[in-house]
Amino acid sequence: MGSLAAGSAAAMGTGAFTSVSANRDITVDVAGDANAFLQFTKAEEDGGVTPNAEEYVNIEGDNTVSLDFTNTNESAGEGETGGSGVNDDATTIFDNLLDVTNNGTQEVNIGVDLSTEPEPLGIYAEDVQGTQDDNGGGFAVRNYPEDPNWDHTLGVGETLENIGVYVTDPGAIDGETTYTVTIIAERVNGNRD
């Protein structure tokens, strides 16, 4: 009986530790938006880039995507005129700007963090039913990160097509203004690893 108790104590005590500090290598590769796990590209339709994506979507030198609605005079062809901003006292909609693809290995919830979406404009996705608080945009996450409520899920390899922008209150924009909007993609059922 004594040897059983000693054997149990030895078995229970093996491998126990309070802390470990160890240096290990981690390899991380940073990819531009066009090659990342969550891929942002110019919207495509009928085998080519949409006119709005061609006009307003910029892909920077580091392959990150930005949108610019300030001046189309530079891209107007000969004999054509371009605009230099959105109409005052009007709602302006820019359809078919971006496509977002899940290049990861797991299904993800995706949406614009409404706390980062500026008052005068909004982001929406075509063919996704929205709610009253995102003006029907259907591309939002509310109450993130405390109790997220997602509008859309992307399976592995799926693409959310034709994401656009609407400007509802141009009077609230003071000249040329830059906004940063946060788009969140999180594994379905959260990060529990």
Would you mind describing this structure in some detail?
With 193 residues, this protein is mostly beta strands. It has one domain. 9% of the residues lie in helices and 31% in strands. It contains two helices and 13 strands, in the order αβββαββββββββββ. It has helices spanning 2-13, 51-56, and strands at residues 38-42, 44-45, 48-49, 57-59, 65-67, 92-102, 108-113, 121-125, 140-142, 149-150, 152-154, 159-167, 183-187. Strands 7, 9, 10, 11 and 13 form a five-stranded mixed beta sheet that branches. It has a four-stranded antiparallel beta sheet with strand order 1-6-12-8. A hairpin with a 5-residue loop joins strand 4 and strand 5 (65-67). The chain starts with a helix and ends in a 6-residue tail after the last strand. 20% of the residues are buried.
Provide keyphrases for this structure.
193 residues, mainly beta, 5-stranded mixed sheet, 13 strands, globular, disordered N terminus
Summarize the helix and strand pattern as letters. Answer: HEEEHEEEEEEEEEE
Strand content: 25-35%
Secondary-structure-derived class: mainly beta
Question: In one word, what is the shape?
Answer: globular
Give the C-alpha Rg.
24 Å
Low-confidence stretches are 1-11, 130-136
Count of domain modules = 1
Specify the number of helices: 2
Mean pLDDT figure: 75
Question: Oligomerization state of this entry?
Answer: single chain
Largest sheet: 5 strands, mixed
Q: Percentage of helical residues?
A: under 10%
Number of strands: 13
Give the terminus-to-terminus CA distance.
42 Å
